[in-house]
Amino acid sequence: MEEERIRKLLSEVQNGQLSIDTAFQQLRSLPYENVADFARLDHHRAIRTGFPEVILAEGKTPDQVATIYNRLSTKNDRVLATRVSPEMYTTIRDLLPPETVYHPMPRLLILDRSDVTIRKEGIVVATGGTADMPVAEEAAMTAELMGNRVIRLYDVGVAGLHRLLDQAGTLQSARVIVVAAGMEGALASVVAGLVSAPVIAVPTSIGYGASFHGLAALLSMLNSCANGVAVVNIDNGFGAGTLAAMINRLGSAG
Length: 254
Description:
Blueprint: H1 2-14, H2 20-27, E1 33-35, E2 39-41, H3 45-49, E3 55-56, H4 62-73, E4 78-82, H5 86-92, E5 101-103, E6 108-112, E7 120-127, H6 133-145, E8 148-153, H7 161-165, H8 168-172, E9 176-181, H9 187-192, E10 199-203, H10 215-222, E11 229-231, H11 237-253
Parallel strand pairs: 3-4, 7-8, 7-9, 9-10, 10-11
Antiparallel strand pairs: 1-2, 4-6, 5-6
């Protein structure tokens, strides 16, 4: 949306419909917009990276999140806020654009006014267990908002390996696979040993005491003996979904 606005603006200047001074005033907010001295919104992000700036709601006040969300929605066809608690959503629900949808499991606020009709195939998101689904859904919905179709394979952990092997065909047809797993985090290594696609491993904070809130899974994934495994931070479904979308975009472009 921002790129279209710039092209329209330049065209209006070229055609004499808009003065240079007026156009300059409109372009001033492009590098970033200072919002109430608590945020500097990067309106160039979509032009540079292909997707607008994303809001991390955790640590912000409800009013700050609502203000930033609304400002981004005036300049972008897609807006994403992560780590939005149900309590925060209840507080700001009536302040948001009417098209906004809240997804409680992954704690995502999503506004999608894009006209994407054909989504890129190629992404699979898998979990070790049902308890890993909130992180996996954060990854899957992020990738979907970035224009991809995502196949979900949930609860296919190594404690019942036949559940995973039954999906070998789906895994082997993927361009990129996101694996979210807690406990000992072994699923990422097993999946990577079955496929030629890159595997993005997401350690989750699910597990008993000695899992150390995901640290055990993180170390297991970092020490994977399988090739082609990249690891994001604990519970970082958003980061995994973004990386998967970028890899899929490059892969499908070839």
